[in-house]
Design a protein that fits this description.
- By secondary structure, the chain is α/β, with parallel strands linked by helices.
- It folds into two domains: about 1-145, Glycogen Phosphorylase B (Rossmann fold, 3-Layer(aba) Sandwich), CATH 3.40.50.2000; about 160-360, Glycogen Phosphorylase B (Rossmann fold, 3-Layer(aba) Sandwich).
- Helices cover about 35% and strands about 15% of the residues.
- Strands 3-2-1-4-5-6 form a six-stranded parallel β-sheet, with helices on both faces. It has a six-stranded parallel β-sheet with strand order 9-8-7-10-11-12, with helices on both faces.
- Helix 8 crosses helix 9.
- The longest helix is centred in the C-terminal third of the chain and has 22 residues, at about 340-360.
- The relative contact order is 0.12.
- The mean pLDDT is about 95.
Length: about 375
């Protein structure tokens, strides 16, 4: 069987399809599995051991995309896929699914595009407290798959050895030695203002974590659009800590996606909002503290074994969440802004303590 999987756009959404990739390989061990992805999230699936081939389409804003898509459509049709599963459901992905000419094409029953699939799966429009992995797994139900289990069907993103070597060298240059230091990876902000925790809150959190244990090293990570915010947080935290502890805050090193995965595999704790890096972290065993604003942890919490340490922080009493992230009704983004640094620090300390207890018990 020749199978094509399609998931465009966001890193986190691609990570959340990886349980389905493993399940398909388990069901069809002799099948040829191909994954179509855009450049930003390609590092998530390029090293996936269950895939035979990864096709990287042009990005949504790339010049010449229309011409490239026509060439891509011809290439996909020539591949003669038997089955295509569109995990995305957008206009581009549904069109690419249709032009493959595959006999079986599974996608969501989206208004105006559902006709492009031979099998349509309902996708409720309301923001239900139902995990995104399960929502995407719905597309496997027509094939007779039983519900997913986070222990057996966890998210995954294998480590790139070359990226790991670069990360180790970068940490050594910053005088950060995993094992000798407790490495806390803290992802700064997000491109979406609805998921952006305030800079002063980050500064207070970083300073409090270092002051509690000078053996800790807080490594700030960010996307390209948040690099200035990460630098500001790093500078302000160092100033608050003073010269004796300033070296415990690292923010000068930029990590690409594969390097971020390698960093998180060596970290003692990850702290971040509901964005791609949170889900990359979920593909490792690192303890996680996730901050959820307009989204629900029930939908977006790390999908992995419950034996691993995960803390989710959210203001459950706010009537305005979850929201569609198009307009903040109150106007102050309170679902994240009202989360206190002390609350996050307490969750971080619990996660570190629980992780230490689990390591001790396993010895």
């Amino acid at each position: 069987m020749n199978i094509l999987l399609i998931r465009l756009r966001l890193i986190g959404d691609v990570v959340l399809t990886t349980p389905s990739i493993r399940a398909l390989r388990r069901r069809y061990p002799a099948a040829r599995l191909t994954y179509l992805v855009e450049p930003e999230a390609a590092p998530v699936v390029l090293p996936n051991p269950h895939l035979d081939h990864v096709v990287v389409a042009t990005g949504p804003a790339d010049r010449g995309r229309m011409r490239s898509d026509v060439a891509l459509a011809r290439r996909l049709r020539a591949s003669r896929f038997d089955l295509v599963i569109d995990f995305h459901g957008g206009p581009r992905s549904s069109w690419l699914t249709r032009v493959t000419g595959a006999t079986a094409r599974i996608g969501y029953a989206v208004r105006g595009r559902g006709w492009m699939y031979t099998v349509r799966v309902p996708r409720p429009r309301d923001l239900r407290p139902r995990h995104s992995v399960i929502n995407q797994w719905d597309l496997l139900a027509p094939l007779g798959f039983s519900p997913p289990d986070p222990t057996r069907d966890a998210t995954e993103m294998p480590e790139d050895p070359a990226a790991a070597a670069r990360v180790i060298a970068s940490l050594e240059r910053a005088d950060v030695i995993p094992g000798q230091h407790a490495v806390i990876a803290l992802h700064v902000s997000a491109g979406n203002p609805f998921r952006r925790w305030p800079v002063p809150s980050f500064v207070r959190l970083v300073a409090a974590l270092v002051e509690a244990d000078p053996r800790r090293r807080v490594v700030l990570t960010s996307g390209p659009s948040e690099a200035d915010a990460a630098a500001r947080i790093g500078h302000d935290a160092r100033q608050q800590l003073g010269p004796a502890l300033a070296g415990a805050v690292v923010f000068e090193t930029a990590f690409n996606l594969a390097e971020l995965r390698a960093l998180l595999g060596r970290a003692d704790l990850f702290i971040g909002g509901d964005s791609g890096p949170l889900h990359v972290a979920s593909a490792t065993a690192v303890p996680i503290v996730g901050l959820f604003g307009p989204t629900l942890s029930a939908r977006s919490a790390p999908w992995r074994s419950p034996e691993l340490v995960t803390e989710s922080i959210e203001l459950t009493e706010l009537p305005c969440r979850p929201c569609d992230q198009r307009r903040c009704g109150p106007g102050d983004f309170r679902c994240l802004a009202w989360i206190e640094p002390e609350t996050v620090r307490a969750a971080a300390e619990r996660a570190l303590m629980r992780s230490g207890q689990r390591r001790s018990a396993s010895r």
